[in-house]
Model the fold of this input.
Amino acid sequence: MVGIFGCILKEGNAAPVVHEALKRLEYRGYDSVGEVTIHKGKLYIKKDYGKIGEVHALYNLDDLPGRIGLGHIRWATHGAPMQVNAHPHVDCENQVAVVQNGIIENYAEIKGELENLGHLFKSKTDTEVVAHLIEEKLKKGLSFVKAFHEILNRLEGSFSIATICVKDSDKILCAQKESLLTIGLGENAVYCSSDIPTFLPMAKNTVMIESGEVGILSERDYEIRKFSDWSQVLREPKIIDWVPEVAEKEGYPHFMLKEIHAQPSTLRTTIRLQEEYLDLMTTFLDRAKELFLVACGTSYHACLAASYMFSKMAFLSTHPVFASELIEQIGKSVNIDITILALSQSGETTDTLAAVDYARLHAATILGLTNVIGSTLTRVSRVYICQQAGPEIGVAATKTFTAQLSVLAQLALKLAEKRGKLSHVEMKNYEEKLKQIPEVVERVVRTQESKVKQIAKKYHDKPFFFFFGRGISSAIALEGTLKLLETNYLPSMAYPVAEIEHGVINVIQPGAPAIFICPKDDTHKKIIEDIREMKAQGASIIAVVEEGDEEIKALANDYVEVEKGVPEFLCPIQCIVPLQLFAYYMAVERGLNPDSPRHLTKAVTVK
Ligand code: AGP
Done:
């Protein structure tokens, strides 16, 4: 995934235009880059692993001939970051070139069929199947356009694709399903891209291609059709007058807010992970004699939540450990019988890798969950899963956290099934609820954002915050606190609320804001008592409640609502969203930039 771009110029060479366009996507993070042009019936390709500047210095990305070109920057999802896996990908005959942003979920099945027909694959990517599928249709005598049309209904997943072909060398064909794709109409060129900023300096007139639609681009014209019935779609161009900085954030004022809003989409991708990866990891979890969940920061909070999921769903007890404490805390007992599940969105956090290295040296089995294929964690893990959340720019982890939670929830569910802990009916019900989680998060953001904004306005000058939960929500209280600490530099503390009796009660001052996460799970009755007690101390109660929870609403000074009926193991995914928004709007109210908190970097790779 990450970004695709295509252009047809009236005159001149496309390659330097593609190169410049890709540079405008650099801010997003990527591991490889590639370009293809078409000239006198031949494809010209340059691609490699590395940053655009490095690849350009090696190969000169500007000297490919031809007026038509495609480009891609890649964030590996299938296949390690290597030259062979960089886009564009071609068919066996070098006549079709394809770039893709997204995930083609059923590529393994298609690849198998095509290999049986004699197709030779060079890469480990999902994208390459598109070039070979088109080739197969061309062999049967179909035109390029017809071939593209016929293969689109075979592709499952969410993606935006652009392709060119030497047999119809004055066109770019592009299509999208649940992904972004826009046409740009310039004076001297037509463009298509997954990211408007790529062509913004050259074209302000844009036409969106919606999910399930194809764009047929030629020098002077464009046509949009539906891939279901090939009917034509008439859509007027719109003028986009974003300045480049706003365009990068797709109109949001900060990346953090953009990434909070992106969560329904990343969750959609994450809950469609390939079964084989989940099954393999589940087998290792099932066999683990002793399982430690190891990470730092937000990833540690995901471990904590996972310990409740694994125990409650699959009757597997686990030990969450801060990576930085692993050697001191359990070092002497690490041996061949220990399994470590290490979580790191970057896959490069020094403390996490040090813990993993230590455990490997002591013969433990290492499992990894990360957002970056090709990261050190993927290289040192016996088995790893990539959570497929795409690059995250904001330093405060948001979409990578909910992606971690959703992978862990899927593992808990699989493990419960494997261990026979759920009935068929329960299993079906939970699978259905899992499928609905992206829409649940979408609704929470849509309906609660303005309320959270008001709450941030009301409390923004408070000097100290408390976050409380019980059960699995304790992990969310901790994550809520971390978001506020990171982006607002405000002291705050989080506890499983029963702990207050053991000391914290002494520092609750009248008017102190206490944020309670209180879904209607087994802890609900007790948390009502906790809220009453805290109110008696004079705290101002801000509650995250399920809709319709009148009892807590009546007790709270302020509340935000999440959806009812979400099972306990999925509830953290929706409950963290208001707290992410709270940290974001608090920072905005307090005049801070939530995207670049002081003293913090995206990955802590130094001691
Ligand atoms: C989260 O918002 C922070 N940026 C930080 O706590 C982070 O989660 C931690 O450094 C671990 O990072 P990792 O997941 O890349 O290992």
Notes: Residues 424-459 form the longest helix (36 residues). The chain is about 40% helix and 25% strand.
